[in-house]
């Protein structure tokens, strides 16, 4: 297992903008709303205009559950606020008609977990069922630390978090990404963005739980147009 797979609380793109990103979004911080709008412009709006942003909506975990097989998701291209509204409407339609929530066929946790376990076992590593079924113990095999880091991000987006902001670094299916995670009064979401050297050429990801669709829609409507004339 390589610790280069993931690192917690690392410096990221927001350190280029704010003296202390971990304090920039606290409720009692001066210019907090400005910080939020600058962050959204740099990490979300600019990749959107380049056609490099995808919206991932997660659902399925509830009542404390966290089985990898139960975490569902669907990805949407996100090039405008109108694209975000399309996702909102799709989920509201499913709720109104009591039909299954939109979901892709691929599994974002259980499939890569099974693949990593299979590789480890093929290389002669013996992994007990306890290791396989306990996320904190996934670090015992190659690729497991990255999967555990992503698991924790998804878990916090579903069940909430006390920290307003955190930045991690993680190997993802897209490659190395900074995970900028926000738990704000306005809504909870994560932005997975490439390192600074690759930001103009590689894709980014906006991740949120389906319960946050309306709050984040409101936040984007309020925030993104402010920089249109600059």
The largest sheet, given as strand count, sense and whether it forms a barrel, is: 7 strands, mixed
Strand order of the largest sheet: 1-4-5-6-7-2-3
Principal-axis shape equals globular
Q: Percent of residues in beta strands? A: 15-25%
Mean pLDDT: 95
**Cα-to-Cα separation, first versus last residue:** 46 Å
How much helicity do the residues have?
25-40%
Task: Tell me the series of helices and strands, N- to C-terminal.
Answer: EHHEEHHHHEEEEH
Structural class: alpha+beta
Put simply, the count of helices is 7
Count every beta strand, where a strand is a DSSP E run of 2 or more residues: 7
* Poorly predicted segments: none
| Cα-atom radius of gyration | 18 Å
Task: Please give the structural blueprint.
Elements: E1 6-7, H1 21-24, H2 32-49, E2 53-59, E3 72-77, H3 81-96, H4 110-122, H5 129-133, H6 144-159, E4 165-172, E5 175-184, E6 187-193, E7 204-209, H7 213-223
Parallel strand pairs: 2-7
Antiparallel strand pairs: 1-4, 2-3, 4-5, 5-6, 6-7
Keywords:
230 residues; alpha+beta; seven-stranded mixed beta sheet; 7 helices; globular
Describe this structure in words.
35% of the residues are buried. The model has no long low-confidence stretch (mean pLDDT 95). With 230 residues, this protein is an alpha+beta fold. It has a 7-stranded mixed β-sheet with strand order 1-4-5-6-7-2-3, sandwiched between helices. Helix 3 (81-96) packs antiparallel against helix 7. The chain has helices at residues 21-24, 32-49, 81-96, 110-122, 129-133, 144-159, 213-223; strands at 6-7, 53-59, 72-77, 165-172, 175-184, 187-193, 204-209. The longest helix is centred in the first third of the chain and has 18 residues, at 32-49. Helices cover 36% and strands 20% of the residues.
């Amino acid at each position: 297992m390589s610790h280069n797979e993931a690192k917690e609380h690392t410096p990221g793109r927001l350190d280029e903008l704010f003296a202390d990103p971990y304090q920039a979004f606290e409720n009692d911080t001066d210019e907090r709303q400005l910080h939020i709008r600058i962050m959204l412009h740099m990490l979300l709006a600019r990749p959107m205009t380049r056609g490099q942003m995808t919206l991932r909506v997660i659902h399925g975990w509830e009542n404390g559950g966290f089985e990898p097989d139960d975490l569902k998701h669907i990805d949407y291209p996100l090039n405008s606020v109108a694209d975000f509204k399309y996702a909102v409407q799709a989920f509201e339609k499913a709720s109104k008609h009591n039909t299954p929530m939109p979901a892709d066929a691929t599994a974002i946790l259980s499939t890569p977990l099974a693949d990593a376990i299979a590789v480890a076992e093929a290389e002669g590593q013996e992994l007990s069922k306890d290791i396989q079924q306990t996320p904190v113990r996934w670090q015992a095999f190659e690729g497991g630390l990255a999967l555990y880091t992503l698991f924790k991000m998804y878990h916090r987006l579903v069940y909430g978090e006390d920290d307003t902001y955190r930045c991690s670094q993680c190997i993802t299916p897209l490659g190395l990404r900074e995970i900028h995670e926000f738990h704000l009064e306005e809504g909870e979401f994560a932005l997975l963005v490439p390192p600074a050297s690759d930001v103009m050429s590689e894709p980014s990801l906006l991740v949120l739980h389906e319960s946050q669709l309306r709050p984040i829609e409101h936040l984007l409507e309020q925030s993104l147009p402010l920089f249109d004339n600059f």
